[in-house]
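Hi all, a correction to my earlier message: I attached the wrong file for Integral membrane protein. Here's the right sequence:
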Amino acid sequence: MNKTRLEAFSDGVLAIIITIMVLELKVPHGMDFDSLIPLFPKFLSYVLSFIYIGIYWNNHHHMMHTVKQVTGGILWANLHLLFWLSLVPFVTAWIGENNFAPFPMTMYGVILLMAAIAYFILQYLILKKHGPDSVLSKAIGGDLKGKISPVLYIVGIICANFNPLFAGVMYIAVALIWLIPDKRIENIIDSE
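and the right structure:
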């Protein structure tokens, strides 16, 4: 099967996710700077989640450049990833509305962890379809970032119950790891 529909559908869903998140930012009732202060937690949670969705969009885009064909399993794995990402607006609004309270921060981390696992499954199925000599296989190599990220999410999830700020630092750390553009796939494609 051709990958075009998978890419178009994924791009559309990710665009809708970002749109839903921004709609949670309500216009303040006042006309001065002080009226923005209560929105600060919501804005911070939006920025972090926007970055996460951007990271997934960017990495998904690069990964799809390595794909020649998709299988039914790859389509379902992609939907699995989109399912977890579609919950990001919900947990984003929840942590922003509740000033980064422990349980919402725990659930934010759970959703991020599940999205990371879903991405790993999608990547695994693409590798399985295209083989160990594929562009993607060469590009990801040992995938240190992919191995460190779930560990940091789990640390954040555990710590969220007694220190939500530290959990937030863990979630931000993962975003920073992935925010630096990953050139592995581009470099492999350019070299071939």
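Sorry for the mix-up. The two ends are 24 Å apart (CA to CA).
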